[in-house]
Specification:
The chain is of the alpha+beta class. It has three domains: 211 residues, no CATH class; 83 residues, Helix Hairpins; 157 residues, Heat Shock Protein 90. Helices cover 54% and strands 15% of the residues. The longest helix has 57 residues. It catalyses: ATP + protein L-histidine = ADP + protein N-phospho-L-histidine. Keywords: ATP-binding, Cell membrane, Hydrolase, Kinase, Magnesium, Manganese, Membrane, Nucleotide-binding, Phosphoprotein, Protein phosphatase, Stress response, Transferase, Transmembrane, Transmembrane helix, Two-component regulatory system, Virulence.
Length: 475
């Protein structure tokens, strides 16, 4: 038999309901104790006042009857009549009974306990047949400074009147009824509250299950600006990143397969043609095969360089160096190749700028950017390399002439294997990994690489590198 395991909604509901029940019961007993204490205290004060009034009235009657208790012995009605006079005339009226009132048949309404009237020898003159309680409230009857008797009342905690007992029972029932109704109301209010509070959590749980199952298109409704709302937004951002990475991985594998398939197909065709005798094995055919092998070698090398730069495994031997002279050296090496294609290189650089970096990797960065402009710039165009130096940063700009790219193509220009259509395509012989490697090299030097439209109609690559801290005076 499968045991029922409450979910988070049931747990939160039970936790809130249990807290409400504990609070209600605690309040019930607190109010109950306060009521009982106050009620008994109220009765006690009233009885003490009446005991004092009765003892004073009996003292007057004792003096009126020649200092003798013969008029009172066994005459309960006389005492009740005195008490009744207190009820009609008020507690400040200390006069005895008069002939206008009939004899009462029971203690007045304000009296809450049994009482006894005893003489100076502690013999009971008026009261029930039960023994006089030793812990009762006692008020002496004093005449001319001599105690001639006493009025004794049972402890106020012993309620003897049915009305008081019934009232106490009614209050108990009413109090517990209020607790029960309040608990029911708390349950009715807590259940929708728990469901409402945990609705975003349930959506996140369901979304996480779908995300773990590989459905990266999963999104949750992120409402509100509280912690759950921000968690929902972060979940959507995570799902979007995973979906984008999955698509990039698929594209990456497809691009690698495509890039490898083309030179391999050419090699296979060339070799089959030589094997079948369709093409003779000549130095020209060997050169063609070597060209395809060179293409494959460069692609594999680029993939190796990219993977190492992604993992941070490239060796960086950094030192303070003048990046301006390094850039001039790289541009000088490409100047003849640019001229052979009818392209012009112009430099607009400061006298010097010192950075803390790796000479070989920075030279690789500049070679990739120059090679990129050489391949993807139409004949008769130009490349302007400029630099802007601030107190803590050097910004290099490689701006070439047409053809240009669209805004959508510009956003993806640094993606792996991506090349724009038109003149900037695979026919130029690139693998589409050069800019991706450049991004990693710049990031390893604490900088940033971005692409924008060139004022000459082509593409402008901006490289931001921090200057050497020791030389700029920064910490």
């Amino acid at each position: 038999m499968k045991l029922w395991r409450p979910g988070i909604t049931a747990k939160l509901f039970l936790a809130i309901l249990a807290t409400c029940i504990v609070l209600l019961i605690s309040m019930h007993w607190a109010v109950r104790l306060s009521f009982e204490h106050g009620f008994i205290d109220y009765i006690k004060r009233g009885n003490e006042q009446r005991l004092q009034l009765l003892s004073d009235a009996l003292a007057e009657q004792y003096a009126t009857h020649d200092n003798n208790w013969s008029f009172l012995r066994g005459n309960d009605r006389f005492v009740f009549q005195i008490l009744r006079s207190f009820e009609h005339d008020g507690p400040d009226d200390k006069h005895g009974p008069d002939g206008r009132r009939g004899p009462p048949q029971m203690p007045p309404h304000g009296w809450r306990t049994q009482f006894w009237v005893v003489d100076q020898n502690a013999r009971v003159m008026v009261g029930p047949r039960s023994p006089v309680p030793p812990d009762g409230t006692r008020r002496g009857i004093v005449v001319n400074g001599v105690e001639v008797g006493a009025v004794i009342a049972s402890p106020v905690e012993r309620l003897t009147r049915n009305t008081d007992i019934n009232f106490d029972r009614q209050q108990r029932r009413t109090s517990w009824l209020i607790v029960a109704l309040s608990t029911l109301l708390a349950a009715l209010a807590t259940f929708p509250l728990a469901r409402g509070l945990l609705a975003p959590v349930k959506r996140l749980v369901e979304g996480t299950h779908r995300l773990a199952a590989g459905d990266f298109s999963t999104r949750v409704t992120a409402t509100g600006t509280d912690e759950l709302g921000r968690l929902g937004q972060d979940f959507n951002q995570l799902a979007s990143t995973l979906e984008r990475n999955q698509q990039m991985r698929r594209d990456f594998m497809a691009d690698i397969s495509h890039e490898l398939r083309t030179p391999l197909a050419v090699l296979r065709g060339e070799l089959e043609a030589i094997q079948d005798g369709v093409r003779k094995f000549t130095p020209e055919s060997v050169a063609s095969l070597q060209a395809e092998v060179g293409t494959l070698t460069k692609l594999v090398d680029d993939l190796h360089q990219l993977s190492m730069s992604d993992e941070g495994a490239l060796a960086y031997q950094k030192a303070s160096l003048d990046i301006v002279s390094l850039l001039e050296m790289a541009a000088g090496a490409f100047r003849e190749r640019f001229a052979s294609r009818g392209l012009h290189i112009s430099l607009k650089l400061p006298e010097s700028a010192t950075v803390f970096g790796d000479r070989d990797r920075l030279m690789q960065l500049f070679n990739n950017l120059l090679e990129n402009s050489l391949r993807y710039t139409d004949s008769g165009g130009q490349l302007l390399i400029s630099a802007e130096k601030t107190a803590h940063q050097l910004t290099l700009t490689f701006a070439d002439s047409g053809p240009g790219v669209s805004d959508e193509q510009l956003k993806m220009l640094c993606e792996r294997f991506y090349r724009a259509e038109g003149s900037r395509n695979r026919a130029s012989g690139g693998s589409g990994l050069g800019l991706a490697i450049c991004v990693n090299i710049v990031a390893a030097h604490g900088g940033q690489l971005s692409a924008a439209h060139s004022p000459f109609g082509g593409v402008s690559i901006k490289v931001e590198l921090p200057l050497d801290r020791d030389l700029t005076g920064t910490v």
